Amino acid sequence: MDEAGLVRAEGRSGPSNPMRVGFGGALAAVCEAGRSAMYQAHLTTTDISAVCAGLAGAAQPESQRKMKKLLHEEFPTQTLQVCTDVDLKLEATGEGRAIVLNVGTGTFAVGRDLDGQVIRVGGHGPLLGDEGSAYDIGRRAMIAALRASDRGEADSPLAGRILRELHAADWEDLQLRVYRMPDDVFPKIFPVVTAAADEGDSEAQVLLQHAAGELSGLVVDLMERLRLTEEKFLLVKSGGMVGRSPYFDKLLDQRLRMAAPKVEFGSLVVTAAQAAARLALRHLLEPAEEGA
């Protein structure tokens, strides 16, 4: 993005959550995307004045400091800023009262009131939170199937479908895969559950009903803290779970409207990457504005 806010080029790379791929992996992904964008715009590192990296898994100050130190090696003379993917999505809503509900492998909600106060709820990771996430739905589906198996019951249609779709020989095989890498199993069960729910499977629908309740609860908690209960505000749903299932999308919207009757559903006005560039530009200009 240039000084006027015009996007000159965009780059893309792999995962960049330092809590999942490590700080070295996150740095490599960020730099790969950055180099791709610079190459397309016919620029080099010396042409860049400011960099903002918005990363999932960078909520803790220590994580941000470590990531910023690593980025400094790649961009030693640039103004650097490290924030979270949450910050980017809220920035991407524009201005005014807004809540972003992110529903993907993890879940969180972040909101802003009319005074600009920003509060985040959820997003504590699979061990301490992420209720209603694709990870959580997959985990709950597998727990239910294992309990049924322990009782000597035959696999339900949903359980059998999970084994087939994940190419598992049996539940012991799938358990071993979970122990080795749960991130590679539980989120993959989510589309199996949604497909079954769309076809009328009651077991799958119950799992999604529970998830929708958890997600609307995040929004309610945030509304109360931001004092938006009686106010109109923009609500943006984002993440990989959105648009995957007509049943789940309709269900979630119903729960959210019940929780927030004055909500206005909308979408992000720019991409997360563009929001990062906007934050970088603003961060670059702020010192000059303060000294003016």
Secondary-structure topology with pairs:
Elements: H1 18-40, E1 50-54, H2 61-74, E2 79-83, H3 85-91, E3 98-103, E4 107-112, E5 118-122, H4 134-150, H5 157-165, H6 171-180, H7 186-198, H8 202-226, E6 233-238, H9 246-259, E7 263-266, H10 272-291
Parallel strand pairs: 1-2, 3-6, 6-7
Antiparallel strand pairs: 3-4, 4-5
Can you characterise this structure?
With 292 residues, the chain is an alpha/beta fold. It has 2 domains: 18-89 and 271-291; 93-269, ATPase, nucleotide binding domain (Nucleotidyltransferase, domain 5). 52% of the residues lie in helices and 13% in strands. The strands form 2 sheets. It has a 5-stranded mixed β-sheet, with helices on both faces. A two-stranded parallel ribbon has the order 1-2. The longest helix is centred in the last third of the chain and has 25 residues, at 202-226. The protein is globular, with a radius of gyration of 21 Å. Residues 288-292 have low confidence and may be disordered.
Which labels suit this protein?
10 helices, globular, alpha/beta, disordered C terminus, Nucleotidyltransferase, domain 5, 2 domains, 7 strands, two-stranded parallel ribbon, 292 residues, 5-stranded mixed β-sheet, 52% helix
Counted up, domains total 2
Could you name the ranges where pLDDT drops below 50 across 5 or more consecutive residues? 288-292
Mean pLDDT: 89
Distance between the termini: 24 Å
Strand content: 5-15%
CATH topology of the largest domain: Nucleotidyltransferase, domain 5
Structural class: alpha/beta
Q: Approximately how much helix is present in the residues?
A: 40-55%
**What is the CATH architecture term of the largest domain?**
2-Layer Sandwich
- Provide the CATH top-level class of the largest domain: Alpha Beta
Quantity of strands, as a count:
7
Spatial strand order of the main sheet: 5-4-3-6-7
Largest sheet: 5 strands, mixed
**CATH superfamily grouping of the largest domain:** ATPase, nucleotide binding domain
Could you give the order of the helices and strands? HEHEHEEEHHHHHEHEH
Radius of gyration, rounded? 21 Å
Q: What's the overall geometry?
A: globular
